[in-house]
Amino acid sequence: FLKLINRKDQNFQHWYSEVVFSAKLIEHYDISGLYILRPSAVEIWETLQAFFDSEIKKMNVENCYFPMFVLDSHLKKEEAHNSGFKQEVAWVTKSGQSDLEAHLALRPSSETIMYPYYSKWIRGHRDLPLKLNQWCNAVRWVVGDPTPFIRSREFLWQEGHGAFATEDEAHAEALEILELYRRIYEEYLAVPVIKGTKSEMETFGGAIYTNTVEAFIPNTGCGIQGATTHCLGQKFAEKFEVKFEDKKGEKAMVWQNSWGYSTRTIGAMVMVHGDDKGLVLPPKVASTQVIVIPVPYKDVDTQGIYDTCKATVNMLCEAKIRAELDSRDSYSPEKKYSEWEMKGVPLRIEIRPMDLENKQVCVVRRDNGAKIHIANADLVEEIRKFLNNIQQNMFDVAKQKRDECIQVIHTWEEFKEALNQRKMILAPWCDEKDVELDVKRKTENEMGPAKTLCSPFDQPELPEGTKCFKSGKPAKKWTYWGRSY
Ligand SMILES: O=C1CCCN[C@@H]1CCCn1cnc2cc(F)c(F)cc2c1=O
Ligand SMILES: [Mg+2]
User: What distance lies between CA 319 and its chain's CA centroid?
Assistant: First the structure.
């Protein structure tokens, strides 16, 4: 698995499956829709988790852990679970040979598991705000074609659940969390996202509104919902009787939000940055940032080369740069280059006899293939500059590509044309559901229908009299449309 068979621009789905396997992120499992996350995937997940966990702790969110099993009676209480979700719920019905008298659902999301205890724990206003989060798995027996990280029947995520005395606090925290999600994508994964609000049709049934960070995959022309925050209003509080005695001694219902991101983040990063040599890792999430490879020439000073490689790794590690030495003598340098390129390591250092003489090393960038010689004296400083430059360059290149995919349109004809060109369509919309239904019906194909992705917070000018691209009614907002995962 040192060379990919599929090309990213020719057969994206197969290219993607090959990359996640050949880069050793994923191992296939013998149950459809389930995948093994290998160490290099877990290392990326843990890097994101470390950032996000430390940030939410600054917001006084506390981590908890609720059981992953829920009684049918609780699950039913939330009508959102009865609508489109019913088919996705997985159940435990037996233990050993005997049937369980009460069937247990596996957690697809934890509102109905947690909120009976929110009701029990929240009595007075001093019990608020209650801000809990859990890092766990979730199970949804989805039927769409399984895609590692993007659509799997079990995934890792965090789910945060806030309960507040006032509506403003719930809104405010949800916006703070959405900004953390943007930072996860743009500052760590170097993936550009758009902050926006989901349409009513795309909003979770238990929420009054859903905000999202939307990513986009130029190769397929599909959007990806990167992470979500929901403002739940008092809908769950009503159903689960989550009330408190306010300062005036009156009974009031709490205002809630919930928010989550999952291992889908990793899939989006692979899709955006990968190339025909394999994975391309943003340095911030690369467990190995620099791989040092000895390139001996016949037996000229082989020991000297090895010693210099070792010293180079030590110097970089002392500077908190994650460097590794590949001293396997069973592999030729060329085979090593291919393997570490497949794994997406941002920088490679090659050391040959002539580099010893010139007191230099040869550095090769994974993002743009550039080959540069740097003097040993400037090593640490130069490598740190390269890593920062690669992180920024990967984001800039991805943002440029994503922006080139954005197409502003004003008519249905233009919409269809842009969709065929796999664009992320920005259109003036009357905000009426039957337009979404109509567009879905008229655009259904093997990649699925076009739908609203989000209405961006950052709204362009909407001149008086602008008409909805589809209904011709007065447009209310600019909205992104496209196919999506
Ligand atoms: O999206 C989030 C963030 C983390 C906390 N939960 C919210 C809403 C999840 C919405 N959702 C999403 N999918 C579901 C699938 C199911 F099978 C099911 F029973 C329930 C759900 C379900 O509630
Ligand atoms: Mg779903």
Answer: 29
Phi, psi values for residue 215, rounded to 5°: -100, 170
Ligand 1 contact, 21 CB (< 6 A): no
pLDDT attached to residue 1: 61
Residue 386 three-state SS: helix
pLDDT at res. 299: 85
Q: Does the model's ipTM exceed the 0.85 cut?
A: yes
Exposure class string for 279-304: b at 16+ Cβ within 10 A, else e: bbbbbbbbbbbbbbbbbbeeeebeee
Phi, psi at residue 478, to the nearest 5°?
-80, 135
Q: Is the pLDDT of residue 346 over 80?
A: yes
pLDDT at 25 over 80: yes
What percent of the chain is predicted at pLDDT more than 70?
A: 99
pLDDT of 394-448, one tens digit each? 999 999 999 999 999 999 999 999 999 999 999 999 999 999 999 999 999 989 9
* CA of 151, nearest ligand number: 2
Q: How far apart are CA 61 and CA 64, in angstroms?
A: 10
β-partners of residue 131 are 162
| For the CA of 152, the nearest ligand | 2
| 175, 143 Cβ separation under 8 angstroms | no
| Cβ(69) – ligand 1 distance below 6 Å | no
> Rounded to whole angstroms, how far apart are CA atoms 342 and 44?
16
Q: What average pLDDT does this structure show over 373-386?
A: 97
Interatomic CA distance for residues 125 and 118, integer angstroms: 13
Instruction: Say how far apart CA 156 and CA 168 lie, in whole Å.
Output: 30
Of 76, 103, 204, 225, the one to substitute when testing ligand 1's pocket (max ligand atoms within 8 A of C-beta) is 204
Contact by Cβ (8 Å): 315, 354: no
Contact 162, 170 (CB under 8 A): yes
- The residues with which 27 forms a beta bridge, in sequence order, are 36
What are the beta bridge partners of residue 424?
406
Distance, in Å, from the CA atom of 180 to the CA atom of 183, rounded to the nearest integer, reads 5
* Amino acid (one-letter) located at 72: D
Q: Give the pair of three-digit tokens for residue 62.
A: 């506390």
Average pLDDT of the segment spanning 310-325 = 98
CA distance 395 to 343: 19
